[in-house]
Amino acid sequence: MSVLNITFCCTNTAPEPWLAGLHTTLPHAEVAVWQPGAAPADYAVVWQPPQQFFDEQPQLKGIFNIGAGVDALLKLRLPPQVVVVRLEDAGMAVQMAEYVCQAVIRHFRDLEAYAADIRAGHWTYHAPRQRSDFAVGVMGLGVLGARVAQALAHFEFPVNGWSRTPKALAGVRGFSGAAQLDDFLASSRVLVNLLPLTPDTTNILNRERLSRLQPGGYVINVARGAHLVDDDLLALLDNGHLAGATLDVFRTEPLPSGHPFWRHPKITLTPHTSARTLRETSIAQIVAKLMALQRGESVAGLVDVGRGY
Ligand code: NAP
Ligand code: GLV
Known about the structure:
Layout: E1 5-10, H1 15-25, E2 30-33, E3 43-47, H2 51-56, E4 62-65, E5 83-85, H3 92-108, H4 111-119, E6 136-139, H5 143-154, E7 159-163, E8 172-176, H6 181-186, E9 190-193, H7 207-211, E10 217-221, H8 230-238, E11 242-247, E12 267-269, H9 279-294
Helix pairs in contact: 1-9, 3-5
């Protein structure tokens, strides 16, 4: 039997621990960092590879993306026969649930204002808010969005969810498709974005849509920067329709110095860290799926390239 060849091409990722982990889990495979002119491989493990990588590896059987989102990958010309597999959860869902719940709770409980009071040496009480006035709408009810929606429901927030196809999740009022987007937004005060970035969802968080949120709305974007029209968010924060935003993702990353988001008093920023790829869990998932593909079995988490996610 011929030796299985795996090539690794991940931007901004130290390759050594990944190679060591893949080698330990698949001791009979050849695993190497891709270099221009490298020998043809059977499978690739990638994150934001260059077009040259696929141009030189047209024989690939499968591509494993070491993230949940495949928007950067799908901008490239891929070999037509190749199977694209993304990470499904792999430890990211619980991270996303804790990040989003802390952002919602920080806003709902006025913790930013309490922190400012304490810094100023003031022992002050703010009036408690009604949970029923803080309906949270989760856009995208996939692997991450469903986990986030259920975690929010656990804290007894009213939770709405929006997906392309109808979903039934306990404790979540479901909306689906373009026809129900306006009703979903009008039913929500806090908006959490967990959509994949596709031609249908690019710029979806624009002035018209964000204006439909209930007054005093709050935006949490943890999906991709290009979902959000930056100037539209700033305009709605400045005219008071929106009370604030927590942003983890940006059109350009790192966020350019001088961008108005850096210093806006109503915006909380983090550097694309809401749900990180966990190496060991991810390697275990990738290897299990690679072996299943080798046996001719079907695997979950296949990307529909035409659909964009
Ligand atoms: P997923 O399982 O593929 O779920 C995507 C969800 O979005 C599905 O519910 C899908 O609807 C819905 N959707 C797609 N297109 C839609 C449309 N046009 N209208 C309405 N709903 C639509 O993806 P996931 O694993 O949850 O990940 C979601 C995204 O999170 C990733 O694509 C990535 O961009 C982002 N992410 C960010 C971080 C971070 O650290 N900030 C980490 C990981 C992932 P159906 O259920 O009907 O298909
Ligand atoms: C991170 O943003 C991912 O898509 O996994």
